[in-house]
Amino acid sequence: MALAVGFVGCGRQQAIRPTVTGGEVPDQEVSDFVLTETDQGQPQWTLYARYAATFSARNITTARGVRVDFFDGQGKQTSELTAREGDLNQLSHDMTARGNVVLQSTEGTRMSTQTMRFRNREQKIVSDDFVRVERAGDVLTGYGFESDPELHHFEFKRQVNATVRTRTGGLVGTERRK
């Protein structure tokens, strides 16, 4: 995979003032951060953040005010992830999103949790936290979530609850699986 847009800020840049976190000072800080991952010229995802800081010694970029747009093989956006903050591994391009994480597909499926990881090489969304998925009035909840970024194929590993509604909005039933 090729990196289309490097670690650059778009728009205005704030004065660089090191943010001390546990004694560690970032190598670089920017506002209005944008990074696009491509595969043979086709965008895979684009990460936007209001603020980002690079920590080269750990190969990590931390970000606040995060949004990630995911794309299909034709370059069409398929879903959007938002979170309060996150980390990007500069080598693998794996991401971790934290705080009010929501993944909304363009087809209307919505996943929400507090912590989620994106495994770039596998193109997989995973979470060990409590996850809620809503699709066409149906609600699934559980732990051990794994999915593609489009939320087409997903599964829960444990403590799964499902509430399924009829097309007219009536409740079909609630099922619980351990």
List the helices and strands and how they pair.
Blueprint: E1 2-9, E2 28-39, E3 42-55, E4 60-71, E5 77-89, E6 95-105, E7 110-119, E8 124-127, E9 131-135, E10 138-143, E11 145-147, E12 154-155, E13 158-165, E14 171-177
Antiparallel strand pairs: 1-2, 2-3, 3-4, 4-5, 5-6, 6-7, 7-8, 7-9, 8-11, 9-10, 10-13, 11-12, 13-14
How would you characterize the overall build of this protein?
This protein is mostly beta strands and 178 residues long. Strands 1, 2, 3, 4, 5, 6, 7, 8, 9, 10, 11, 12, 13 and 14 form a 14-stranded antiparallel sheet that branches. The chain is built from no helices and 14 strands. It has strands at 2-9, 28-39, 42-55, 60-71, 77-89, 95-105, 110-119, 124-127, 131-135, 138-143, 145-147, 154-155, 158-165, 171-177. It has one domain: lipopolysaccharide transport protein A fold (Sandwich), CATH 2.60.450. Strand 7 (110-119) and strand 8 (124-127) form a beta hairpin. Helix content is 0%, strand content 65%.
